[in-house]
Design brief:
This protein has about 700 residues and is α+β, with helices and mostly antiparallel strands. The protein has a 7-stranded mixed β-sheet. A 5-stranded antiparallel β-sheet has the order 10-18-19-11-20, with helices on both faces. A hairpin with a 6-residue loop joins strand 8 and strand 9.
């Protein structure tokens, strides 16, 4: 029998234990019975509304001293509002959930993960955190949860987390993890060993996406990083010096940094052990990791909201690995991995082999006319034969071609094609092998490549831009064109006789899976914002007018998807950066198999041709001519302020195919304000490039992110 001293010791041990809180559902009941909102309780506890929400759904628990204060409050409410006295009306609207731990310091068992972390489900990732002071709710029907993909048991907590200064790591779907790390090496170890973060590969031959940890300013300082990076260089070019204590910590712990060093997007890794990758991607918010042009307003959001935005993007596109341009390029490789396992005929072993349809593992020199003037292929060969000039439209109509009727129309209406360059990537056949040189070849519209031809004899209506030049002027002699440009000349009924060409024998629709994934991401995100395919044109314009205000978080996701398209295509011809660069030297981008200016030219050529085809069809159907075209936006004179006032419709009221049509699908149009377009027109008339002067301008693909 136990002695009195042993019994008293056991009782004292119980008294010294941490305070025990009532179940999460009871916490919510007591607060509601007291008539207190989650936001007001958050103010009293000196925390965020999202944290209070997590207390009440069992995803996290308070720590001392907040734990004792919260317990005292709940005890007081329990005395005033006992459970048996509450009426059915004051009961929680949903059945109480099983109590599960909301903070994790170790790997969760599969059954725990399933209960606490539905992070892969679209509805969970899209649901806006409860913030009464903001309007951030999804308009998508809740029924979409039925189509949720299964949670990968290796990554139960989703693709990423946003770490705040108090050690709370906010993940997709509202989950909050407890991160005890106080140094960068500890953070990397925790992420790989305990966090349960990551994303499964997008292709059977690809690699899993590395987990992403986004650091708030408070978290960065706590981990020994400066709150801001200062210097005369552009922010994205700044790096911690090699002798910085954090860089030394990383090296001492036997971790490595990539050649980019420790900048806004830092990758920390060790050599893979077997099939297991050991790599963590960091993004530091206060170092401008999330560019305002691509991620509008995201850096200023609460950590839980940032996790929601990035989580939706990761689920629909890819876990961010840098700028949206970098992510766009990485997505191409993730969907078309360069290698796959093949069996060696002689040994019977499985070895790494080329994956058909990909760009392979080795960089490829372009043909001289496809390169840039500073490229070694051009400098070393002394090439003087000219270059491809396949760029987006920057054209203003000559005022002398305006009719009196056009001048008297009271409105100028801008139509912006939804992700026009993404639409151009659909079923686009590009070269996969090195270019071969041909003299006087017969033109074949099915062979991708660069052709030298003279199109100056072709005379077109001056009220439309020439489809053969970016500035819309008539060609003045022989020039290099991508296949789609010459094929369109043939389509218009003109003979094409190339002088020479650089063509590729191996071809394929390399960008097809990239197009499909980004198209679905774009259309699904618009649908979640209330802009669906079933809307008529009036409803579409009304929905587009309000969609950004309905949910700023999803509006940021939509902006990032669009930037991923343009930035990814632009990065196919990334040019050298930095004042120290000298012409003829190589630069880092040239070491990538995805440095393919010919593919970039093919996308832009097809997009420009698609635009001209629609302009031509508009003339045939309505007799209307544009005032200006800037990239994927065209301005028309109009009798009213809506595009419905001048777009062609059949007698049945349906839009006419072939011309501009309204809708959320890539390649269809939406109403665009013309103020920035008119500013661009003014800049072009002054001989300036609008893409360099309009913040976030869509005039050209960004090649330098």
């Amino acid at each position: 029998m136990a002695s009195e001293e042993e019994l008293f010791a056991s009782v004292d041990a119980l008294l010294e234990e941490e305070p025990q809180l009532p179940p999460p559902a009871e916490r919510a009941r007591l607060r509601e019975a007291a008539g207190i909102t989650q936001a007001r309780l958050a103010v009293a506890l000196k925390t965020s509304t999202q944290t209070v929400k997590n207390y009440e759904n069992g995803r996290s628990e308070p720590k001392s001293p907040r734990l004792e204060a919260y317990q005292r409050l709940l005890k007081g409410w329990a005395a005033k509002y006992p459970a048996h006295a509450s009426s059915a009306a004051s009961a929680p609207a949903v059945a109480p959930q099983p109590e599960v731990p909301g903070t994790f310091t170790g790997s969760a068992a599969p059954e725990q993960a399933e209960a606490a972390t539905p992070v892969q489900a679209p509805a969970a990732a899209l649901a806006a955190p409860e913030r009464p002071e903001r309007s951030a709710t999804s308009r998508r029907p809740a029924a979409t949860t039925a189509a949720a993909p299964a949670v990968d048991p290796r990554f139960p907590h989703g693709p990423l987390a946003v770490l705040d200064g108090d050690g709370s790591a906010y993940g997709a779907g509202g989950i909050v993890l407890d991160c005890p790390a106080t140094t960068i090496p500890e953070l990397v170890e925790w992420t790989l060993r305990e966090s349960g973060l990551g994303t499964a590969k997008l292709n059977r031959y690809g690699k899993d996406s590395d987990p992403l940890i986004v650091l708030t300013a408070a978290a960065a300082v706590k981990l020994g990083l400066p709150e801001r990076l200062e210097g005369h260089e552009q922010r994205r070019s700044l790096r911690l010096p090699e002798d910085h204590p954090v860089v030394k910590q990383v090296a001492k712990a036997k971790w490595q940094l990539t050649q980019r060093g420790f900048g806004p997007w830092a990758r920390i890794y060790r050599k893979a052990q077997g099939r297991e990758r050991q790599c963590v991607q960091l993004a530091i918010l206060s170092w401008d990791a999330l560019d305002e042009r691509s991620w509008p307003g995201v850096s200023e959001m609460e950590p839980a909201d940032i996790a929601r935005v990035l989580g939706v993007y990761a689920m629909r596109v890819i876990t961010p690995r840098g700028s949206t341009a970098v992510s766009g390029l990485e997505l191409m490789t993730a969907l078309r991995p360069p290698t796959k396992a093949v069996r060696d005929e002689e040994t019977g072993n499985w070895v790494s082999g080329h994956n058909a349809g990909s760009l392979g593992t080795e960089p490829m020199d372009p043909a001289p006319p496809e390169a840039t003037p500073e490229h070694p292929v051009v400098v070393d060969s002394g090439w003087k034969g000219g270059f491809l000039n396949e760029e987006a439209y920057q054209w203003v109509r000559d005022v002398d071609t305006l009719s009196d009727e056009e001048c008297t129309l009271p409105f100028a209406v801008g139509l912006d094609l939804n992700t026009a360059f993404l639409a151009a990537a659909a079923r686009l056949v590009v070269g996969l092998s090195a270019p071969d040189h041909f003299h006087a070849p017969k033109f074949n519209p099915k062979i991708p490549g660069s052709w030298l031809a003279d199109l100056s004899h072709i005379e077109l209506d001056p009220r439309l831009p020439s489809p053969f030049t970016p500035d819309g002027t008539r060609p003045t002699g022989a020039a290099w064109y991508q296949t789609h440009t010459l094929a369109y000349a043939q389509e218009l009924g003109h003979d094409v006789h190339p002088i020479e060409a650089y063509l590729r024998r191996e071809t394929g629709a390399y960008l097809d899976p990239w197009h499909d994934r980004l198209k679905n991401a774009y259309v699904d995100t618009l649908a979640d914002m209330g802009v669906t395919k079933d809307l008529n044109d009036v409803g579409f314009l009304a929905a587009m007018e309000q969609h950004k205000q309905n949910d700023p978080a999803l509006a940021a996701v939509l902006s990032a998807i669009k930037a991923t398209v343009k930035g990814g295509v632009g990065k196919l011809r990334e040019r050298p950066q930095g004042k120290s660069y000298k012409e003829g030297e190589t630069w880092p981008a040239l070491s990538r198999p995805t440095w393919r200016p010919d593919i970039r030219a093919a996308v832009i050529s097809k997009a420009r041709v698609n635009m001209h085809r629609k302009l031509n069809n508009m003339v045939k159907m309505t007799g209307l001519y544009p005032l200006a075209v800037l990239s994927d936006c065209v301005v028309y004179p109009s009798p009213g302020e809506s595009p419905i006032d001048f777009l062609p419709y059949a007698a049945s009221g349906k839009p006419q195919p072939g011309a501009f049509r309204l809708g959320p699908t890539p390649g269809l149009a939406k109403l665009e304000g013309v103020q920035s377009m008119l500013w661009a027109v003014d800049l072009m008339e002054k001989g300036l490039n609008p893409a360099r002067h309009i913040k976030g301008g869509d005039a050209v693909m960004d090649e330098g992110e």
